[in-house]
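tool=predict chain=A
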Amino acid sequence: MCLNTKNEVVAVHRCHIGSLNSSIVHPREVFKAAILNNSASIIVAHQHPSGDVTPSREDVEMTKRLAEAGRILGIEVLDHLVINYKAEYTSLKERGFFS
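tool=predict ok
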């Protein structure tokens, strides 16, 4: 989700579709939509088809990479959510995986 300076959603984009158990996404794919929409910040989300919303090691590493890229670009990553088909979720920000 791309947000403006008032944290209002200005656009929602699907950046990548992974396979059943993995996904390789690059920060440039995530931030492309944010840059084109003049976003002040973004919220990233992805689904775990297994139903387990526990963030993987790769989820945490990608979140840290996105947060660092956002700092460089001046587009803050407000949160990264892991969701499932039952509308349960885990916030990596709330869990303290990045600041």
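The radius of gyration is 13 Å. The chain has a mean pLDDT of 93.
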